Amino acid sequence: MLQIGRNILSLLVSRILAAVILFLIYTRLIQYLGPYAAGQYGLMAAYLTVFSFFIDLGMQQLVIKKISEDKTQASKYLTNYFGIQFCFGLAFMLIIYTIVSLAHYPILVRHALYITGFSLLLSSMTMPFMAVINAFQRLSIIARVNFANSVINASMMLAAIVFRRNIFFLAFIPGVVAGFDIIIYGFVVAKKFAKLTFDFDFSFWKKIFLWNLPFMWLTIFSIYNRIDSLLLPHLRNFTEAGYYSAAYKFWDTLAFLPAVVAAALYPYFADRLMRGEKEQVREVLETYTRYMIALGIPLSIGAYFSAQKILLFFAASFVPAAPALWLLIAAVSVLFIYVPVNSLIISQKTKIATIITGCNLLFNLIANLIFIPKFGFVAAAVITLMSEIIQLVGYTIVVKRQIIDFNYLSNFIKPVIAGIIMAAALMFLKNLNLWLFILIGAFVYSVCLILLGFFNHHDWELLKASINFRKKIEV
Asked: What is the pLDDT of residue 248?
């Protein structure tokens, strides 16, 4: 439990600091580039994002699970996974090169994308080292490297502005970051966890590919909440796609917290269930489900009252996106609530998780094709919220019935009561400015939770122990 809390705290601090640094520099970079060059830079980022999503076809989750279950095999998995990732990275790099060669991009953009393809290869080679560190539940190492990455990223962006460089210079940033990661992660993993031997076992590769099939399909099906962004320009127009894109930026910003929690819980569940320690798993599952419910409920309520204020403050011309913004933040709130069971079901019932997510993908695609043409981007947001509810219900039922039963519905009582009181307060404070509105809402909600006795002695002790990094952890 302490290791999980420390991992989450480390990742949260590094992600928040990195986000602040990059946001400040990125806004200056876009101003320097101007709309046309910024569009070219965005194309590079799109290539890297899309191909990075599929670069290992979900294999990292498999390797984390396997090493968590038997750490004596870490070197074997590291070596063979590294070989597989090199092949994947090379293949996707060649695919990018083929697409770019056939496309009618300007020479500068084409050359920048070639560099981006090579960066993807380097990035793929960092994943085996990260999988080992994750499996040993030492996410504080990844947190520190992530922060260093943000400093490198921001420094090179700033250098581009100061020395008046173009997107070809910027194209080197992902490669420099990936090269840095390979050196640092390689050194740390070799020193503390496992050796990379280059003694490849190709028969073992076949086993890994077979074991990975459910993870591969789960990764592919997980695009269910991104389909609407692809369909909107075709089914409606680019204006509505722009509104939806602006609202979705808040999803991307908030979704980092569930991602951090999932990264910390996933190897822990695999490790403890392999040892047969179901009571410890139940305790952690109940604790973090309770925490995420307490965070998710005020998030969706607050978004309902403040969506328009948020858009007026950050992007006044996008105020028509307010309904979609509230719905998407509500969808993230649902993601908050089911992220602990998500980590558990993927660890123990990957095939069932794949089936549920695949059905959700089908539902999302059909619903979007039916309702977006008539109701536009707001319908897309409604469907995204419904999709996350499907994931929550499906995953929770499977976990309770087939993996481990745990206390669930009663965890909603106190946060819902506190949320209702917060909503009543916000109704009378709707004329306040955005930041005061948010602060008062958060204060009212927090005080209500404390007065209702939501937090117990164990919660406070866990928080203090997680902050105290001098305290040693028993593995």
From this structure: 75
Q: Can you say whether the dihedral through the CA atoms of 154, 466, 335, 348 is positive or negative?
A: positive
Residue 475's Cβ-count burial label (10 Å; 0-12, 13-18, 19+) is exposed
Nearest alpha carbon to residue 366 among 472, 275, 235: 235
Cα–Cα distances in angstroms (integers) from residue 436 to residues 17, 306, 319, 470, in the given order:
23, 11, 20, 36
What phi and psi values does residue 398 have, to the nearest 5 degrees?
Answer: -65, -45
Q: Which of 348, 433, 440 lies closest to 395 in space, CA to CA? A: 348
Q: Please provide the DSSP assignment of 124-157 as one string.
A: HTTHHHHHHHHHTT-HHHHHHHHHHHHHHHHHHH
Percentage of the chain with pLDDT > 90?
42
User: Which amino acid is residue 338, in one-letter code?
Assistant: Y
Query: What pLDDT is stored for residue 240 in this prediction?
Result: 76
Q: What is the mean pLDDT of residues 395-409?
A: 92
Token pair for residue 432?
Answer: 């306040």
DSSP single-letter state for residue 406: -
Please check the confidence at residue 464 and state whether its pLDDT lies above 70: no
pLDDT higher than 80, residue 128: yes
